[in-house]
Write a structure and sequence with these properties.
This protein is mostly helical. 69% of the residues lie in helices and 6% in strands. Helix 5 crosses helix 7. It binds zinc ion (ZN).
Length: 177
């Protein structure tokens, strides 16, 4: 009898969540935005407290996890692809926005906001020294690295045109000097 009650309640809760998902998630996000530090502190405390058992669990279930996520990826190819693209796009937008000093990514020279033509420029032309080539294809990992490093200085958002013009100017100056 008690089991059935618990089961019913769980089903009801699951149903409730599905029906009000958007609202619940929005509320959680709002709460997190307002109480960021507090949430982080709680998270850290929880992590510290359960660190060992989590590690043990991960160790014992590694193979199982690998299989589950592999199967999921195979069965949900398109979803996975879409998710990855969206995730990369999000990081790119956030990083370019940061280096254009605005909410929306834009070229700091001409102001164009078309995300497809925007890229990162190394202020001191030291792309090779840093071992990176920003922007363009394969840039997602680079954007991710910058975000992870808390956006170091030395970059700015440019469009392909302004980037090219900057490079031409530099070469002209080099040829003249
Ligand atoms: Zn531009």
């Amino acid at each position: 009898m008690a089991d059935k009650r618990i089961r019913d309640r769980r089903e009801y809760q699951a149903q409730f969540y599905l029906e009000h998902r958007e609202r619940i998630l929005r509320r959680v996000q709002e709460y997190y935005a307002k109480n960021k530090e507090r949430c982080r502190a709680t998270g850290r405390r929880y992590y510290q407290k359960h660190k060992d058992e989590r590690r043990l669990y991960a160790q014992n279930h590694r193979e199982q996890h690998r299989l589950v996520s592999k199967r999921w990826a195979q069965e949900n190819r398109m979803e996975r692809k879409a998710w990855t693209l969206k995730y990369r796009e999000g990081i790119k937008i956030a990083t370019l926005a940061h280096y254009s000093n605005s909410d929306i990514p834009c070229c700091i020279l001409c102001g164009i906001t078309d995300i497809d033509v925007l890229c990162l420029d190394h202020i001191n032309n030291d792309a090779l020294i840093r071992g990176h080539r920003g922007g363009g294809k394969g840039g997602a990992n680079f954007y991710f690295e910058l975000q992870k490093a808390d956006y170091p200085q030395g970059y700015k958002t440019l469009c392909a045109n302004c980037n090219l013009k900057k490079e031409l100017k530099r070469r002209r100056n080099c040829a003249l000097s």
